């Protein structure tokens, strides 16, 4: 599926290039990512695929199932299996170093309980980048892997390793954490890689701004990673600036944004499967609406 009317101001001679180069950007947001699950399932149903996808944290996890074209796999993982296994808990944080059970999510699910279609994923010609934060540099890394299954899972695990409540994950010997620390909405990355127009899937309502306050991270937290502490100390400001950028680009017609329309009732570590199902269904409806509007 290609898009011919995404950016009205473009001249006709630019349309062919736009069709080939439209990118997809997936925000994170923990369990709010079930909205993205719904959007992506609608995309799969309507054969709506993009040549380039860049995803962060929960967006990376859900994007994996989109890239392997496994309809409802991400929904099943985030809702049905959460209800069955209860893989979000303080007990996990104490006993396993992560509030989300890492062994269950990145080993047992993809390799047994909920098999991941590695073959289809590898054969997918689209580029899929996952954003991580390099703990040594405090900068974003944009990583991709199609062949090495272990490295692939390490990348998505690192991208989703929330600071303070998850262990640092090593990728290629480099300590990494959640990509949302420094690049929660990687629209600029998509543009820099040759995709001037993008569809952005958000997990916050329009107009949302974080009311949290940035503060200096004490040295006893991540003491070996001073640049990571700097990145964490300005995380809220950077995220709010990205939210403003997204709304400005949307107003200018430079991107199309798919976001929740109803007031958000799901938080980052929500375990209420009824709320999660409602948010998934909203995402699915918004994905269908997008496909109906922009299909040829």
The tally of helices reads 12
Helical/strand content category: alpha/beta
Q: Determine Rg (CA atoms, Å).
A: 18 Å
Q: Kindly report how far apart the N and C termini lie.
A: 7 Å
Structure write-up:
The protein is α/β, with parallel strands linked by helices and 296 residues long. 44% of the residues lie in helices and 12% in strands. It is built from twelve helices and eight strands. Strands 1, 2, 3, 4, 5, 6, 7 and 8 form an eight-stranded mixed beta sheet that branches. A hairpin with a 2-residue loop joins strand 5 and strand 6 (174-178). The longest helix is centred in the C-terminal third of the chain and has 22 residues, at 273-294.
Topology:
Layout: H1 15-21, E1 23-26, H2 34-45, E2 52-56, H3 58-67, H4 73-85, H5 90-96, H6 102-113, H7 118-123, E3 127-134, E4 140-143, H8 149-159, E5 169-171, E6 174-178, H9 187-192, E7 198-201, H10 226-233, H11 235-251, E8 255-258, H12 273-294
Helix pairs in contact: 2-3, 2-12, 4-12
List keywords for this structure.
296 residues; alpha/beta; eight-stranded mixed β-sheet; 12% strand; globular
